[in-house]
Sequence to fold (702 residues):
Amino acid sequence: MATIRDVARLAGVSVATVSNSVNDPGRVSEQLRARVLKAIESLNYAPRAAARSLRKQSSGLLGLIVADITNPFFTELVQAVEGIASQQGFSVLLCNSDEDPAREEKHLQVLRSQWVDGIILATTGDVSLSRSSLLSQIRVPVVLVDRAFDGLGLDAVVLDNRLAAHQATEHLIRRGHRRIGLLSGPTSVTTGADRLAGYREALLASQIRFDPGLVLEAGFREQQAYDATVALMRLPQPPTAVFAANNLMAIGMMRALSDLDLRCPDDVSVISIDDFAWANVFRPKLTTVAQPVREMGEMAVKLLTDRINGHRSGTGSTHMLESRLVIRESCAAPVQGTQPEPMPVESAPSR
Amino acid sequence: MATIRDVARLAGVSVATVSNSVNDPGRVSEQLRARVLKAIESLNYAPRAAARSLRKQSSGLLGLIVADITNPFFTELVQAVEGIASQQGFSVLLCNSDEDPAREEKHLQVLRSQWVDGIILATTGDVSLSRSSLLSQIRVPVVLVDRAFDGLGLDAVVLDNRLAAHQATEHLIRRGHRRIGLLSGPTSVTTGADRLAGYREALLASQIRFDPGLVLEAGFREQQAYDATVALMRLPQPPTAVFAANNLMAIGMMRALSDLDLRCPDDVSVISIDDFAWANVFRPKLTTVAQPVREMGEMAVKLLTDRINGHRSGTGSTHMLESRLVIRESCAAPVQGTQPEPMPVESAPSR
DNA sequence: CCGGTTATGTAAAACGTTTCAAAACAAATG
DNA sequence: CATTTGTTTTGAAACGTTTTACATAACCGG
Fold:
C-alpha cells in the first residue's frame, strides 16, 4: 500500500512536510498543504498505526476487560465505553474473561504487550496474588469498574452497593415484608459483601432480626439462583419476598418461581439490583434498583484519559455512584393466606 | 520499560539471539536459550506489539464491527468470535456501529489504519456506495456475517433466512392458524427481505392467501414492533398469531400484547426468529427459531484466518447455516371465541 | 590437511512513522 | 549592505522489533 514516501514523492515535498500537514497544519503553508492533501487523497493513503505508535510511544488503544459479555450490565458498559472512547479518538480492545481469572490474566498480558494507553478492568472474582503483581507491573493507567479492590491505589468507579441493597430491602419492608430472602453474590468480592451489608443495615434500621437462613449465596449466576430460590421457598417458613443481588440471579429466581407455580407478586414479591432493558417485558414487570451504567462507563473513560493525558496523578481514589429505585409491579404487600404459618405482619419488631 | 536490547545485554548475547530464542527456539542452543529466558523473566520483558507488527507487516488484530452490541444476537456473536480468535492468537478490536452507517464507515477507516489482519463485519443497513468503495479499498480480508451483499465477492456467513421464516410460519400453520401477522425487518436488507420471502413461501405451500395488510415493517426495533403490534391487533380482523422476524421485535410485541391485555398463547400465538438466553424466562416461554450464533462466529473466524494464512483465495462465497425450531409455550391453536368476528378456522384456503 | 557441510551466533538492514535540529529562504532591522 | 529575525521546509535520527546474510567454529569424509 501507499506509504508516506509515496505521498511525498507525488506531492513533490519531503516526508516531514507530509507528516506536518496532517498532524500540525500550522507549520506548513496553505499552498503546500493543499498539494499534500490532494496527493493523500489520490493515493488513498492511510498512515500505519504500528509505525506511528512505535514512534509516538502510544497506541491510541484502550483495553477493556469485562467479566461476562453476555451480562446486560457489561454489555451496556461496553457500549458506553466504546462510544466515549471512540469519540475521544481511542479504539478499544475488548476482552471477555468469561468469569475465568486465568483468561483475565492472559488478557492482561496481551494488553501489556499491545502497549495500550490505558485499561478499564471489571475484574472477575477476587484479586489473586499473581494478578495483582501483574497489575502493578503494567505501567499504563488502570481504572477498575464495578468491583474495586484496594492496595494498589487504583482509580475505581463503583456503585454504592450498600445503598443499593438498602434501597431494595427497605422498599420491601415498606410494603410490609419482614421475612425477606436474599440471593447473595460471593462475599469474597466487594459487590457481594457490600450488598449483603446493605441488606442487613436495612433490616436493622427497621428492627427486623437478621435470619442467616434466609440468605443464600448464588455466585451471581442464574442457575445457582434458580436452585437457591427453590430451596428458599421450600423452607418451613419461606420468605414473603426475595431480593436478588444482580440481574442474572433475578432471572434464575423468576424462572424458579414460575416453575414452582408461585405467582409474583401475589405469592411472593421480588426485587433485584441491575435494571435492564427487558425488565419491563417480564410479567410482572420487575421492580429493580438501577445502576447508572452509562455514567459509570463515561466516568471510567474520563478518569482513564485524564491520567493518560497527565491531567491526573498520584494514587487513585474510589468513585461511588448512586443507584436509583425503579418501581414497577413485582412488589406487593405480603398476603397472610399464602403463608404456611401466617405471621403477624406489622407486629413486634423482633423476629 | 525493558526492551530487547536490555535483555540481550543482561544475557550477554545479541538481540538477534534474544529474538530467536523466543520466536524460533530451534535456531539457538539450549544453554543460551535458558539464559535468555531467565533474563526475560527477571526483566519482565514483553515485546512491543507496535514494533513487531511494523516489522512483520501484520498486527495480530482482528476487527469486528457489529450493528448493535446490546442485541443479544450480536452479544453472543462477539463472545464466540472473541473466544476463538484469542484462542488462535488474535486479539479483537470491537466496534459498535449502533445501527449508524456513518459510524460504521468511521470504524472501517480506523480498522484500515490499524492495519488489522482481517475484518468481520455485521453491516448495518444496506450497503451504500461510499461504504462499498471503502470496503474495496481495504486490502485485508473481510468476511460478512448475518447480512450479506454481493458485488464485492466477499465471504459471508448467514442464516438460511428463508428457511427460518418458513419454519416459523409453518409451525403456526400446523397449529391451525391462517391469519398470521408478520413484524418484518426492512426489506432493503437481506435478512429483512429473505424472511419475508420465507413467510410468503410457507403461506403459499399451505395455500393460504397472502394478505399484505398483515405484514408491518418494524425496522428490527423494539419500539416500532410495539406500535406495529398494537396496530395489528386493532385491525377489524386481527391475526390469531404473530411472527416477529427478530428478537428485539419479539420483545416489543410481547410488551404490546401485555399492555393490550391479550393473553398469550390463549388469545394470540407468538413466534420469532432469534433464540436468546431468556426466551424461556418470559411467561409464556417463547417458541423461537434459533440461529446457530456460535457456529456462525466460529465459521466467520475460520474463513477469515484461512484467508489471512493464505489457505484460501479467490472470490468469496456465501455460507448458509440452518436454523432450528425451539418449541416452548407461546404457540397454541387459535380459539374461535377470541376473534371479534369468528372465522372458520380450518376452512377454505382463500381468505 | 583441505574443501565442504552443519550448527550456532551476530551485524545490520529493514519496517513507516514522528520530530529534532538545522537549512533555506524571506523579511525586517540597524 | 550586513545582520538579525522569523517563517517554511527538510534531512536524518529514533522508536523496538524481525530477518537476511554473513561469520565463526566444529565436524567430517576424502
User: Anything to note?
Assistant: Residues 4 and 19 of chain B are 8 Å apart (CA to CA). The domain at 161-291 of chain B is CATH 3.40.50.2300 (Rossmann fold).
